[in-house]
Amino acid sequence: MKVLIVGANGKVGTLLSGKLWGAHDFSPVALIRDSRQQTKFTAIGVPAVTGDLETGVSDFLPGLDAVIFTAGSGAKTGPDKTTDVDQNAAIRLMDDCEKQSVRRFIMISAIGADPNSQSERIQHYLRAKGVADGRLRNSSLDYTILAPGSLIDEPGNGRIQAAENLGFHGYLPREDLATAIVETLRNHLTIGKTIQLVSGSEKIKPALAAVVGGGDLPPIA
User: Fold this and answer.
1) In this structure, CATH architecture of domain 2-212
2) Phi, psi of 161 (to 5 degrees)
């Protein structure tokens, strides 16, 4: 499965690039914004392409089997940039994937994403993610939305708690999110699902399978 990682230079994207490259059933391609970032991916054996998500990356989509959206405007940017990247650029990418017949789309969202979020701390971010998630649910794509709790940099332990609606907010190591993305790609019963996940006691693969009612399934080629 040839997979484009959008936001590859971020923390989750970098971890995911390594995990996909180390798996025998995936061929990852890193989308980067600055050609100087390419050295990092060359070092781990992952090919990289340079493009600007905000102006469109449709040229890189032909021949792909899946796209993973892990991009974000970042905590240091203002509300306008959040709308530009987390909402508008994400929706543009969905449109381009539909036009180029790239069926599989994994969106990294967040617990609490909602167009009408009333969060006191990150309202604009959650609203932007909520709008993008809504567009994806109404698309023709084979989507999965992964909505983690607050991401942390601690080493992952390979265990999570997952549900379509957990009913609470928790934390999740970025490493475990990257592993969950890989397992989501491998399980086609995750298509059409929104899955919330935080640190927990269940191993990642069976935890995701329990949410969608399936077990070990081959990836979609």
Assistant:
1) 3-Layer(aba) Sandwich (3.40)
2) -120, 130
**pLDDT tens-place string over residues 78-124:** 677 788 889 999 999 999 999 999 999 999 999 999 999 998 888 98
Task: Name the active-site residue from 41, 105, 125, 143.
Answer: 125
Q: Confidence band (pLDDT; 50, 70, 90) for 6?
A: very high
Angle between helices 174-186 and 11-22 (to 10 degrees): 50
Are the C-beta atoms of residues 87 and 109 closer than 8 Å to each other?
no
C-alpha span between 133 and 121 (Å, rounded): 20
Identity at 44, one-letter amino acid code: I
Annotated catalytic residue 125 = yes
Question: Domains of the chain: which residue ranges?
Answer: 2-212
Q: Note the pLDDT tens digit of each residue in 191-219.
A: 999 999 999 999 999 999 999 986 444 44
**CA atoms of 16 and 182, how far apart (whole Å):** 8
